[in-house]
């Protein structure tokens, strides 16, 4: 027992010396960074942990919009991006952001710290215990990051909450995050508990009780530490109400038994570092900005009787439900057949499976006797999709519990009236009343979809124009850069790095 205590004390003493060592070195590093950028005066450094910053996806649009807006409104802040894209240079990344997102970044207040250990957070590195492996990997990566440069504020924009501990331990700095997706959700935990087979819970595991118990313990421990990590944050943002609800549930996740066990591990000392820290009670929703500039210029009048669906030919999009809804519509209201009504399905097909799915959908259309009114456009070029968005009346989406639905934002910005499944993001975030008036329709059964099609296609032209323009105004505004910037402002990030703080 005594030896153990001595060993622990020595370990902590060495760690403490190590930490003080990097913090001292860091002052010089910061000074040399400011010199390199030619910056003078009292500057603050905001670090963005985003190892895949050059990927060009939705998460990267969020990152660069945030940085561009910070550059514009906060001249005393330097943005530092921790990136594993070591094959690209700063200039190349700035150039790519410009061509990919049309976002202008200034090189004067932007700096990159290159991380060489990014392979540690890749799926391939952890064929088993992926969640745990990636989380530990992200901590090592954050260790590398803090050794290169400690910012004044650390913001994770990729969902690596376990890195918070490292930023706090080595940097002694406040942390925050923009969460796109919870690493583990309370649903996942519940599903393992109920031993239902689903994608990461393979059949072999769910049918064997011992393994299942083991897996449950693994998830339970993981959830416990994930919740603890999130609570270390000073502020949290979520990209949608779906994500916010999950993060909020995790923030109040309790596990009394693990609390007690945890007290007997050295990890409990990490809490001392957070003495007096107030955990966030909830995440703030900050919707990602969507680029709707082009669609928002389309004329709103003279739309054809086209019902448009823009969605990859993936199973969860439920294109079958679209065909059934359309069949119900033309059966109930056959007069629209003469008016030339059409269902147009535009979508990407990624592989042979998707292609086979499209074939089956064509078969179903034939079976339902609607093939003359249905058109499939597979892997359409972007301009062709825009063409359809500018001419269609209705935008259809049948996916159940979709987390968001950028295609629906695009329908609305284009003036296409959305008819979506009554669940998820389309119900809670996107197609919601604006100034007390509807911006579209929700349905569950084929009959309901059909009746909404009928409503839209029978509107008077004034009514129709008003609805189209309301949907557009709402979508363009709600998912704009300004709204996003306002959300960041309100998250309170700035008070953690205010000059003079
Ligand atoms: C939030 O992020 C997740 C994961 O990247 C994504 O699936 C979802 O569509 C995003 N939500 C919004 C509102 O962009
Ligand atoms: C966000 O805050 C900055 C000042 O900190 C201000 O200049 C900017 O206009 C704000 N943005 C919005 C959209 O409120």
Automatic annotation (TrEMBL):
It is found in: Endoplasmic reticulum membrane. Its EC number is 2.4.1.131. InterPro entries: ALG11 (IPR038013), ALG11_N (IPR031814), Glyco_trans_1 (IPR001296). GO terms for biological process: protein N-linked glycosylation. It is a single-pass membrane protein. Pathway: Protein modification; protein glycosylation. It catalyses: an alpha-D-Man-(1->3)-[alpha-D-Man-(1->6)]-beta-D-Man-(1->4)-beta-D-GlcNAc-(1->4)-alpha-D-GlcNAc-diphospho-di-trans,poly-cis-dolichol + 2 GDP-alpha-D-mannose = an alpha-D-Man-(1->2)-alpha-D-Man-(1->2)-alpha-D-Man-(1->3)-[alpha-D-Man-(1->6)]-beta-D-Man-(1->4)-beta-D-GlcNAc-(1->4)-alpha-D-GlcNAc-diphospho-di-trans,poly-cis-dolichol + 2 GDP + 2 H(+). Residues 296-473 form the Glycosyl transferase family domain. SUPFAM superfamilies: UDP-Glycosyltransferase/glycogen phosphorylase. Keywords: Endoplasmic reticulum, Glycosyltransferase, Membrane, Transferase, Transmembrane, Transmembrane helix. The keyword Endoplasmic reticulum applies. Signal peptide: none annotated. Belongs to the glycosyltransferase group 1 family. Glycosyltransferase 4 subfamily. GDP-Man:Man(3)GlcNAc(2)-PP-Dol alpha-1,2-mannosyltransferase that operates in the biosynthetic pathway of dolichol-linked oligosaccharides, the glycan precursors employed in protein asparagine (N)-glycosylation. The assembly of dolichol-linked oligosaccharides begins on the cytosolic side of the endoplasmic reticulum membrane and finishes in its lumen. The sequential addition of sugars to dolichol pyrophosphate produces dolichol-linked oligosaccharides containing fourteen sugars, including two GlcNAcs, nine mannoses and three glucoses. This is GDP-Man:Man(3)GlcNAc(2)-PP-Dol alpha-1,2-mannosyltransferase.
